[in-house]
Known about the structure:
Largest sheet: 6 strands, parallel
CATH superfamily: NagB/RpiA/CoA transferase-like
Number of strands: 10
Structural class: alpha/beta
Number of helices: 8
Shape: globular
Order of helices and strands: HEHEHHEHEEEHEEHHEE
Distance between the termini: 19 Å
Number of domains: 1
Strand order of the largest sheet: 1-10-7-4-2-3
Strand content: 15-25%
CATH class: Alpha Beta
Amino acid sequence: xxxxxxxxxxxxxxxxxxxxxxxxxxxxxxxxxxxxxxxxxxxxxxxxxxxxxxxxxxxxxxxxxxxxxxxxxxxxxxxxxxxxxxxxxxxxxxxxxxxxxxxxxxxxxxxxxxxxxxxxxxxxxxxxxxxxxxxxxxxxxxxxxxxxxxxxxxxxxxxxxxxxxxxxxxxxxxxxxxxxxxxxxxxxxxxxxxxxxxxxxxxxxxxxx
Length: 209
């Protein structure tokens, strides 16, 4: 059973709503997947960011099974050219699914990217963006959000992709200048950008990193 963080998530949802994000709270990953299927029309093209959270929901297979065209760049054996092409296509999709490295209790959304396609698509490109985040992504403030993004999310992502960085070896951020550094772009979305519809789905379960 997930730890009960509903009260904290509900407070964060209210803060997000005040910042013009449409936000909902769901009890678990299964309900999150069901909610996404309600949000996204069967005929929509869906771009999928490089998100462990989204893949933990099992939503990609569910979308494909009902006929959605899905564009994910996380595929084995891609050439650099094909990888770049898919990342660009994700930004032209009807819907874009991703997570966040951190969301503050005040409703700010914080991310760190190496390439920048994910944060770019969250801000402008797809008309509809849906961010799914487990309770483990909620932090007190921006400083804590940046710290979490570097010390937890970036370190684990560096290990996942096999980066030759200090954090991939030790699990600790030393703010390195290694060629493989993946902390290259920091974004803080303080209010919903005018031309992008952003839904945030907060889940009472630990998801992704």
